[in-house]
Amino acid sequence: MNYFITAIHTDSGKTLVSAIVTEMLEANYWKPIQSGEPKDTDAVKRLVSNSKTQYFKEAYFLKTPASPHASAIIDGVQIDLSQIVLPDSTSDLVIEGAGGVLVPLNDKDMVIDIAGQIDCEVVLVSNLYLGSINHTLLTYELLKSRGLKVKGLIFNGQSNPESERIIELYTGLKVLLRIDQEEVIDQEVVKKYAAQLKENW
What we know:
By secondary structure, the chain is α/β, with parallel strands linked by helices. The strands form two sheets. A seven-stranded parallel β-sheet has the order 4-2-6-1-7-8-9, with helices on both faces. It starts with a strand and ends with a helix. It is built from seven helices and nine strands.
């Protein structure tokens, strides 16, 4: 199975969640589009401790840390959705998006279109800040309108029980995991959350 990890915001925790899901499933990992360094693939490699995971090369590696469409213009590259092809994975595959679902790749395609062209379930990461209810509900409504199957929600960061309750109520999504505000993110933390996620998967 393919799992597409997306979020409501650029810094919501997609890479950490990708590492946790990858560790839990002993899945393979792929970041189709990387803008700037350090690479998220390298971060996931550092956080995942199982020996089975394979890491696939990006379809596009852009040097400038910006929206992919802007990075591509600066780098003199044209992102072509048809060139973003699933790698040949014999295990479950965790696919990490770039930014949120409406981050543009070019003048006609967005990140959500990557998920739309593959058979996958979406894991939606929501971190809790003023405005995150609106951002989470908007993201879910768009995923739903595109006919994408959403596996569930993962809340990341300092808890806000009322925000979590209302998001869960309005989306009807299963909460797969709640990640606390951790001082250090390392392999042990990832393994801890992978064990929790396994119980709710």
